[in-house]
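lol ok so funny story. i was supposed to be doing the assay writeup but got distracted and ended up predicting the structure for this chain instead. priorities right. anyway since i did it might as well share w the group, maybe its usefull for someone
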Amino acid sequence: MRTPAIILALLVLPWLAALLLWPSDAARAELFGLAGLVLAFAFFSLGHFAMTGQMVEMLPRWVPLRRPIVLATGVMEAGIALALMLPASRVAAGWASIAVLIGFFPVNVYASLTRRGGGGHEWGPVYLLLRLPLQLLLVAWCILFAL
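and the output, tada:
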C-alpha cells in the first residue's frame, strides 16, 4: 500500500518542511501547503499514464471508453495541478479538485470492493479504512490551501 503513503508524503511534507524551516512565516507555510496539493494532483495525473491498464480495471466493465476516460481524467488532473499554481485560477482549481476528489471516490470504493486495479485496491475493503481518511484530508487540504 505504497500509494497512500506516497500521496500523504507529497501532500504534507512540503508544508511540514516550511513549518520547520520558517516557523514564523505563515505565508510561506501556506504556499508550501499548496505546493503539496499541486504535487499530489501531479502524482494522480501521472498514475493515469504510467498505470493506464490498472486504472482502466478500476472502472466497471459496463463503462464505455474506459481507456479514453482514464487518459482524459489524467489530463484533467494535470490541468488542475497547473491551475492551482496560478493565483488567478487557484480558487476555481480548488473547487475543481474538491469535485474530482468527491466524484472519483466511488471508483475507489468499487475498485476496492472488487479488488481491481493497483495502488492498494487489491487489499479489498480494508483499503477503504486508509483511503477514506486520506480522501477527507485531501478535501480539507483543498479548503485550507486553495480556497
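The mean pLDDT is 95. The helical segments are 2-21, 26-50, 52-58, 66-85, 90-114, 127-146.
back to the writeup now i swear
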